[in-house]
Design goal:
Two copies of one chain form a homodimer. By secondary structure, chain A is an alpha/beta fold. Chain A contains 14 helices and 13 strands. The first copy, chain A, folds into three domains: 22-70, Orthogonal Bundle (434 Repressor (Amino-terminal Domain)); 80-181 and 313-336, 3-Layer(aba) Sandwich (Rossmann fold), CATH 3.40.50; 183-311, Rossmann fold (3-Layer(aba) Sandwich), CATH 3.40.50.2300. The first copy, chain A, has helices at 25-32, 36-43, 53-66, 72-79, 96-111, 128-135, 151-159, 183-196, 213-227, 243-251, 253-256, 266-278, 296-300, 315-327; strands spanning 5-7, 84-88, 115-119, 141-145, 164-169, 177-180, 201-207, 233-239, 260-262, 288-292, 306-311, 334-337, 340-344. In chain A, the strands form two sheets. The first copy, chain A, has a six-stranded parallel beta sheet with strand order 3-2-4-5-6-12. In chain A, helix 7 (151-159) links the parallel strand 4 and strand 5. Chain A is elongated, with a radius of gyration of 27 Å. The two termini of chain A are 49 Å apart. At the A-B interface, strand 1, helix 4, helix 5, strand 3 and helix 6 of A face strand 1, helix 4, helix 5, strand 3 and helix 6 of B. Chain A binds a DNA duplex (16 and 16 nucleotides) through helix 2 and helix 4.
DNA sequence: TTGAAAGCGATACCAT
DNA sequence: ATGGTATCGCTTTCAA
């Protein structure tokens, strides 16, 4: 590590030679002079059993003194279930929109007394190994962002005790609840908007970055669908998220003969718009530009960036869905369409 | 939920009336006609014990047929340890920089065979409850972003078996390894840059958004320190991340009598710069602006945004630190300074 | 009001 | 080469 490094001077070297074993409820019981059962009763406030105030105090005291913390694994092993909601880390780079959604969701599930846990192992395409890794933790519910989980994975999770499996992706998976993020609708919106405003030769930015095809492909399809049966054409425009590639694209803009572009999202839109302007093109005169995600960013550009505003489900609603599903695992999968897409027309289109 | 909803038509209603219990190693043993011990040997490829090829096949077969997945809780209970690295969700809104760092880190730890788990419960300021919640999971290591964990929390985690506690914050915590993100250095950089270029009345944006004080306070201090013993003044400028507030600030700009501003980061810088431009001010003539984080965004603005480039530790390095610490829990805490900060001078300052 | 003991699922030692 | 069994930490039923 190429950084300054300092050893803390004062270090009681002897302290950790024999690291004390982690205190268990047995230790607490011994110190308090009661049985393990009593410890459990006191610390869990078991209603059905009455324990004298004096004993309670002694137990709490002992627990505090030892720094006792119950062992979640042992507990859920005994209980036969946990309240862990597992969420694999998304396989795609997440934007601010999605991030806020995640935060909200975690908070909402926390309020419902679930423990939210993001598992570092993402799902490859139809990857049963990933599903198995998640299943080992015996979560009560699994929330999978993006594709990558197949029907077999869902079955595996359910057979491992997951009472609810929810996917958050463009397409539903057999057996799982689905929050359908209809990215085709996003493209469709944008495409129709551009067509309505008289544009006929439409470019669609497709990010070169890996992991984004999940979103970019349906968005492209959406544009195609929007102008099908018209005289408009749709041209795919691969673009990496860096200035050089944007400049290159801008340089050959004239030769492409396009009059409008749906730039995948606001960030790519900004990148491309800047490159086009630097190449001397007028926005929207020479080329209309529209992004997506409705980031603050777009409002600050000149001309102000038109965009497709996306409405993600609220964390509270999704948390409620999970809770419902956990309570009634037998219920048939719910399929929700959760991407409200609408054009916010500003000045760039 | 205000969205289209569809019930999947085909639902074998009877299938889940009595949800089959989750298969255990006992079930596998029974089906394969062997003992649980043998099952364990086979599935874990135990080297010390030799099992006939025929038996192995039968066991694997049975496991596959039942969809058997080992129970992580039971396993780690028996083993007395796990390879879970726990990371509380950061309490502050994370930017793209930090996000990429996290992704890289997860990947690197995964390569070292750790299971990375993000716990939804963030730490309040010196909140022992949060620490307790994490300790219940008996992680082998805990990685805490931001402040919020006190020495007591560290002690609690260690007494619960955590072999490494690493904080990622501006200040070290007694007993824990620390990756010191020296945000004061960021402010110092920016402050000195502005001063060197002849600016004397310096404003410093302090985001109004909650959770950001952890970063904004030391950055402000850094600027103050940079111009201490000079004739320059430093003015604190509270700013919410929205256009209205930025416009308000821009409107009273003249009355503030400032000639330069360190805008906390590139996003706030863009917001403010736009507002100032809209108010008719020339950048950098009437007001020099510098941001931080060196986002792509800044290069696309006109004038191009000067910024403080931050060098975060590589995920691989941090993963290595964690691994080292896990192997030698007795070692004294390492203190690393991990924010390489340097000014990238462009056109806005 | 409290304690003894069974059992959750997986593993590893010690027999056979 | 395989099986019996004690054990990890905790909860809960049943007895006292």
């Amino acid at each position: 590590m190429p950084y300054v490094m300092v050893q803390i001077p004062k270090t009681p070297a002897a302290a950790s030679l024999t690291p004390r074993p982690v205190p268990t409820s047995t230790d607490v019981a011994r110190l308090a002079g009661v049985s393990r059962a009593t410890v459990s009763y006191v610390l869990n406030n078991t209603g059905a059993v009455r324990i004298s105030e004096a004993t309670r105090r002694r137990v709490h005291e002992a627990a505090r003194e030892l720094g006792y913390v119950p062992h979640a694994a042992a507990r859920s092993l005994r209980a036969g279930h946990s309240r862990m909601v597992l969420m694999p880390a998304p396989a795609f780079p997440v934007g601010p929109l999605y991030n806020q959604f995640l935060t909200e969701l975690q908070w909402a599930l926390g309020r419902l007394d679930y423990t939210v846990v993001q598992h570092g192992t993402a799902a490859g395409p139809h990857d049963d190994d990933a599903a198995r890794a998640w299943a080992e933790l015996r979560p009560v519910a699994v929330l999978v962002p993006g594709s990558g989980l197949g029907p077999r994975g869902v079955e595996l999770l359910k057979r491992s005790g997951a009472r609810a499996v929810v996917t958050l992706a463009p397409e539903a998976v057999e057996g799982a609840h689905a929050l359908l993020m209809d990215h085709e609708a996003v493209g469709h919106c944008a495409g129709r908007h551009l067509h309505d405003r008289g544009h006929r030769r439409i470019g669609v930015v497709v990010p070169a970055e890996a992991g984004l095809e999940v979103f970019s492909a349906p968005r492209l399809r959406g544009v195609r669908r929007a102008v099908a049966d018209t005289d408009a054409t749709v041209t795919e425009l691969p673009l990496a998220y860096d200035e050089r590639d944007a400049a290159r694209l801008a340089a050959r803009w004239a030769s492409l003969g396009l009059d409008a572009v749906f730039a995948y999202n606001d960030e790519y839109a900004m990148l491309l718009m800047r490159a086009l302007q630097d190449a001397g093109l007028d926005i929207p005169g020479d080329a209309a530009v529209i992004g997506a995600d409705d980031l603050m960013l777009g409002r600050l550009l000149r001309p102000r960036l038109s965009t497709v505003h996306l409405e993600l489900p609220s964390g509270r609603d999704l948390a409620a869905l999970v809770d419902r599903a956990v309570h009634d695992p037998g219920a048939p999968p719910e399929l929700h369409t959760v991407l409200g897409a609408r054009v916010v027309h500003r000045e760039s289109s």
